[in-house]
Amino acid sequence: MAQTILILVLLFSFNQQNRDNLKKQLDEMLTKWHHAAAVADAKTYFGYLADDAIYMGTDATEYWTKAEFQKWAEPWFKRKSAWTIYATKRNIYLSKDKTYAWFDETLIAGFGPARGSGILIKTRDGWKIQHYNLAMTIPNAVSKQVKDIIDKELNKK
Fold first, then answer.
1. Between β-strands 63-65 and 85-94, what pairing exists: parallel, antiparallel or unpaired?
2. Over its length of 157 residues, how does the chain's per-residue pLDDT go in tens digits?
3. Domain range spanning residue 37?
């Protein structure tokens, strides 16, 4: 009986350590992904996206496939830095079978505070970003003023 309990404890500990190591690897991958944009390394940046990835930017019109996003971002990656975004906090959650994960992150971006969330999938070529959503955070105290600015901008079109 004691041996069975010991084996179960060891298996649980090994599984938890494995999950923690995987979360750390995924955290490092996402940090490298954001860094690739900061140094305008398009090959690395877009290499982290799955071929059929979706990227949702901060503008309501920014709902792109990987190919559309690459085309839009091409001029940005010709500069010294495409854009700078880094995470100050990140939560990563793994599926039980460790074939996909989802995450949320608190970000500092060139345009101010933001959040990102996404889905990662395990592929033959390693982990890839399947879906990413970048959102600006707006304090509730100024949301009415921001809404008025947005309405004014949208009414121009």
1. unpaired
2. 666 654 544 445 545 668 889 999 999 999 999 999 999 999 999 999 999 999 999 998 999 999 999 999 999 999 999 999 999 999 999 999 999 999 999 999 999 999 999 999 999 999 999 999 999 999 999 999 989 998 898 888 6
3. 2-156
What CATH number does residue 73 fall under? 3.10.450.50
Q: How far is CA 148 from CA 14, 136, 142, 157, in A?
A: 54, 16, 10, 15
Q: Using alpha carbons, select from 123, 136, 122, 126 the residue that is nearest to residue 85.
A: 136
Burial 101-132 (b: 16+ CB within 10 A, else e): bebebebebeeeebbbebbbbbeeeebbbbbb
Specify the number of domains making up the chain: 1
- Label residue 29 exposed, middle or buried (CB < 10 Å: 0-12, 13-18, 19+): middle
